[in-house]
Design brief:
The protein is about 20% helix and about 30% strand. The protein is built from 13 helices and 30 strands.
Length: about 475
């Protein structure tokens, strides 16, 4: 996602006056417990540039104050920018911040990160028509965003934690069945370039980071399986999902919205918003229907290492139909090179740096497939341990880490592995030797005996921890 640059906001939103026009004439908003609703057009006038127009509206809001108004006023303030060329702070933003300080007793000034973290520490008490407000507000970014927030929209996440990522719907264009090349024809790649490797049903393909980071989502077919490969650059996570779920093919796109600095996808059929990390609908008509996209394994590695293991691999072609700087490291260079965040999250956990890479997974427990506690293992920890085995969430897992730092996770079952040889062969404590494929560990003397691979992927620590505060961290 792009940053919240004020110049870009002004171009897309047209300033506070446009926000006011968008909200006028809508139905009243009120907390569930209120008896004195404040109409949305009052909030519109509160965001006006003119003090004469805004002051009576603010007085009305103050007289009928409810906790649910904090989120609405914060969003109005954040999206109110000074007219181009004025060189100063928006009068509407300044006025709204001062009003919020008066009403809440919190003096965070223009530090929206502190405002939001304080807001998110409070019990969630949204105004009754908050979704309508949000849809009309973001309609000024892109009219299609209004459909994400119909009245009384079902949601399993806090709507006040859904923020604009700085782009329109599909403003970061997905790759739609991108062209690919045989390994030998990909002369634009060097051996040390980072790729995301996926292998399904005997077919392998590499998705270079230098390409995928500019698009964040690719629809593709691999091994006869329709895939939606989603890359949340902000939280450092690539997950290949099967596109079909619930007996229906879902065409997913980029909504332009975030939840806890994590990309929210949307499906074109219902306009439900889907969590990237969980692969399930979190806002919209599909919520509560038990839908969850099936993830597949992916490995973050180098082109040289992937090609050596998979000489028949294909790889994305550099000609994507889009004009981008696809050179290695060009996409999100500044973001990836620092520990700073672009967007707020409710909490930060300093056991690791924000953008320390971790291997993450949500392990199933039991025959019913119920989820155990989420797990994160430091990539640096694993780099020092080519073979790592432990009981986690009731599963005996083993993690293999290559010399280039590529991680693969397997369900070890009843096996106990003690050593990995230079050729990559594993030795168990009974003397059995096992080879590794992308699908499983295979016993050399009895190839029908396998230990299946488990879906896992890399992530930035802050992004995973924000989504799963109860995660088990190994470092």
């Amino acid at each position: 996602m792009c940053t919240h640059a004020d110049s870009e906001r002004w171009r897309l939103l047209g300033g506070a006056a446009t926000l006011a026009l968008a909200l006028c004439g809508l139905t009243p908003v009120a907390d569930l417990q209120t008896v004195a609703p404040v109409p949305l057009d009052v909030f519109a006038r509160a965001a006006a540039t003119s003090e004469r127009e805004a002051r009576p509206a603010l007085n009305t809001i103050a007289a009928n104050w409810r906790a649910g108004y904090v989120a609405m006023l914060l969003e109005l303030a954040e999206l109110s920018v000074a007219p181009r060329g004025s060189g100063g702070v928006s009068p509407a933003r300044e006025r709204l911040i001062l009003f919020l300080e008066e009403q809440t007793g919190k003096y965070f000034g223009h530090d929206f990160d502190r405002w939001y973290r304080w807001l998110w520490s409070l019990p969630y008490a949204p105004s009754r028509d908050y979704a309508v407000f949000k849809g009309r507000l973001y309609e000024n970014v892109d009219p299609r965003m209004r459909s994400f927030f119909p009245p009384d929209v079902p949601s399993v996440i806090r709507l006040d934690e859904v923020v604009w990522g700085g782009v329109r719907v599909n403003g970061i264009p997905p790759l739609n069945y991108p062209a690919h090349l045989a390994a030998g024809a990909a002369r634009y790649l060097k051996d040390d370039h980072i790729v995301f490797g996926i292998a399904l049903n005997g077919e392998a393909r590499a998705y270079p980071k230098r390409i995928l980071a500019w698009h964040e989502l690719a629809r593709d077919t691999l091994g006869g399986v329709e895939l939606t490969i989603v890359y949340c650059t902000l939280c450092g996570t690539v997950i290949p999902y099967e596109s079909a779920v619930g007996g229906q093919m879902r065409r997913l796109g980029t909504s332009g919205l975030l939840y806890r600095s994590n990309k929210l996808m949307f499906d074109e059929g219902t306009h439900s918003l889907w969590s990237t990390l969980e692969g399930r609908p979190v806002i919209g008509p599909l919520v509560g229907q038990g839908l969850e996209l099936r993830p597949h394994s992916v490995v973050t590695t180098t082109w040289g290492e992937w090609r050596r293991l998979h000489p028949n691999t294909t790889v994305l072609a550099l000609e994507t139909g889009h004009e981008r700087d696809y050179s290695e490291g060009a996409a999100y260079r500044d973001y990836f090179s620092s520990d700073r965040l672009m967007f707020s999250v409710p909490t930060l956990d300093n056991r690791l740096p924000n953008k320390a890479e971790v291997l993450v997974m949500r392990l199933t427990t039991g025959a019913d497939g119920s989820r155990g506690r989420p797990v994160a293992i430091s990539a640096d920890f694993l780099r020092r341990r080519p073979l790592f085995q432990r009981q986690l969430a009731g599963r005996n897992i083993v993690v293999m880490t290559s010399p280039k730092g590529a991680n693969r996770v397997f369900d070890a079952g009843g096996s106990r592995f003690v050593r990995v040889d230079a050729d990559g062969t594993l030795l168990d404590d009974a003397g059995g030797r096992w080879t590794m494929t992308e699908e499983a560990l295979v016993l050399v003397t009895r190839r029908s005996e396998t230990r299946l691979r488990l879906p896992a992927q890399r992530a930035f620590w802050f992004g995973w921890q924000a989504q799963y505060p109860d995660t088990v961290l190994i470092k």
